Structure formats: structure tokens, C-alpha cells
Amino acid sequence: MSVEGIDSILSKNVLKGKKVLNVEVTNLVQPGENFGGELLKLNITTEDEETKSQDVLHAVAKKIPVAEFAQEMFNVQRTFKGEISFYEKLVPAFQEFQKEHNLKDIINCFGTCYGGRLNMNGSDTVDRDALILMENLKYLGYSNIDRYIGYNLEEAHVLLKDLAALHAIPLAIKLRKPEFFQKEIRPFLNNQFIHEDNNAFGDTNLLLLDILCESDKCGPFISRVRKVLNAYKHPQKYQAREPFATFYHGDLWVNNAMMKYENGKPVSNKFIDFQCYDYRSPASDLLNFLITSVNTDVLKEEIDGLLKFYHSEFLDNLRKLECDIEPFNWFKFQEELKEDAQRIFAWATFFVNFVVFGPKGAHEHKQEANFNFDNIAHRDTIRKSIMLEAKERLYFIVQYYARKNWL
What we know:
- This protein is an alpha+beta fold.
- The chain has a domain at 143-403: Aminoglycoside 3'-phosphotransferase, Chain: A, domain 2 (Alpha-Beta Complex).
- 45% of the residues lie in helices and 15% in strands.
- The chain has 13 helices and ten strands.
- The strands form three sheets. It has a five-stranded antiparallel sheet.
- Helix 4 (153-176) runs parallel beside helix 9, helix 6 (204-212) packs across helix 12 (376-385) and helix 8 packs across helix 10 (330-356).
- The radius of gyration is 22 Å and the shape is globular.
- The N and C termini lie far apart (49 Å).
- Residues 132-320 form the CHK kinase-like domain.
- InterPro entries: CHK_kinase-like (IPR015897), EcKL (IPR004119), Kinase-like_dom_sf (IPR011009).
- This is CHK kinase-like domain-containing protein.
């Protein structure tokens, strides 16, 4: 296993008087946990050209998926370019805007990017030599939360504080510097990918409905759930709504964020994987994170409080950036949540059952190709294998949606 041309990326802004002696490459995570690309751990030994002293730079290399169908699924020709642009264009713009307002708490909820490339031939085509080189956050004390466990209340607060800033800052730029936003930011917020539904596994919604039938409390809402699932059965182009539309991460769940702890307390969050970001409502990111990534027991007790906590932080950021917050008040934000709730439900409930609480490891993931949701007997076998925690999460979300009149 090797990665070519590391020195050419590092020489632009990292090496400065040093040369690369050796690059040790291993897998960063377990096989089967890389859903949208290949992640490699790099230990890069460098030598100072004057003193001859050596040092080790701990980095992560992100490459496009190996399989061609996965490259097409994630639309790497657009999204990989977009991820490089996020670090090279958008992050500096967000941070500079805050500095213009004399803020000291500058957004820093992402790792340092050492550089990226589309290929090694100088063309505009993304190929298997494409690479994004990042600092290895694990060496700074960050780690992923176990997706089977999910975020507790303290951890969720740390992440939501950053999420509110990530949404509010580009929104404030849109409001305060509209021409700059349209020219320098908006063109990059266009990475959503829509693919035709080839129905390779059959109707996955049938299994979700079967699971709901196991719960007496969800029985009264099954017809409404079926209507929502059928409405969003096929991919649809998202129409951004003003005035809330802003930067949207697009794949915000437990595997795409890392947490740092001090004395057992969560103190810092980092977002990763910016390949799906787009221009849409912040409610989409918020609901997707809550449904997929917060511990079920915490959701049952605190979901309303978490929504209000996020909104409070969101408004606080807008105030600091001298924006009128009235168009974004709590009443209007609740309307915004309702607008995106059904779309997020259709995606997130599937994601909870088959990704968040799906098997860990490459061998188990390969078995998904045998799914046939149209076959009742096979569907029943799969239903019985679904983790109880996944079912409990689904039951709660359905009841909560019904209570909020989102179904």
C-alpha cells in the first residue's frame, strides 16, 4: 500500500525547508466503515535540510472509492472537487468574515487541510490518484463516537454549538455581503447528487412499515408514515427556501464528526467529510443529526431542548455578525423544521436501520447485496435481525413526528 506524490502536496505550505524521507501507509478505519471513500493513515517522516533533525507528520489521506459504482453513486467528479474547495475557498472566507467583525472566537470545527489534488496529470478529471491530505485528528485527541451508542446530552451540545456557527456564518455573509456571497460562496454550494432509483433491493419502505407494525404505539400512524415514505421514494431535486437557506453539510451523522475530551468531559468537536455540502435549510442538517446520531434515551428526554439549544446558538451567531434576527425567530424556525421534516424522515429512518445500526465490518456489508425487500419471507428474516435499539429509535421518531404534526 502506497500513496505517490505526497511531497508535492506538502511542499506548498507544510514542508518549508524539509524533505520527505518515508511515508508509512495503513488503513485508518476498519474495512466496511468507509462509506464514501478510502481513508488511509499516513505517518510521514521528514528531515530538516539544515539541521538534519527528523520529525513525523501524522496525516490522513482521503481517496475516492475503489469501486466504479461507488464513484458514480457519490458523483466524485463534482463532490471531490467540492471538498477541496471547501478547505481552500470556503473556510478562509468564513473565518475572514468573522475577523472583519472583530470576533475572537473564530470558527475552527474542522481539521487542517494540507492540500489536495484531482490527479497527477494536470487535467480537470478526478481519478484514482485524487487525494485530500488532512491532519490526523486522532493524534490531537479526537475520536468518533460509537454509532451504536450515539451522542449523550453534553456531547450533543458541543456539536450543535459548532453546527449553529457553521450554518449562521455563511447565512450572515449572504445577508451582509450579498454580492460577495453570490460570487465567492454560492457557486460552491452545489454538490447534491441525484440518481435514478433502480430498485435493486426492492421496496425498502416495506421493511420499515413491517417494523412499525411490531409497535402498538405506532399502529395509528402507519398510514401517514406510508404516505410520507411513498412521497419521497424516488430522488428529488431540492428547492432551497429563503431566507434560511445556507451552507448545508449534507451527511451529518456520528461517523462524520469527532469529539475531544478532557477529564472525561467533551470539550471540542470537529466535522469531517465535506463531499455532500449544498445550499439548503439548516433544519435538514439538524434533524438528520438528531435522528441518526443522538442516543435514543437522550432523544426521548431532550429532543425539544436540543432544538431550542441549537436555535439559540444560531441566533447568537447572527447577532454577533450584526444581522436582523427577526426573520429567523423561534416561530419561523419551527415552520422551517416542519418544511424539511418529512424529507429527512424518509432518508434518516432508512439510514438508522441499515447504516447507523448496520453490521460493523466489511464481510457483513457485502451481504447487503442479497437483500430482497419485495419477498415477504426474506423481509421477515431481515426484520428479526434488526437491532432492538434501531427499532426503538424508529418508534420514538414516528411518535414524535406525529406529536409535532409533521406526518
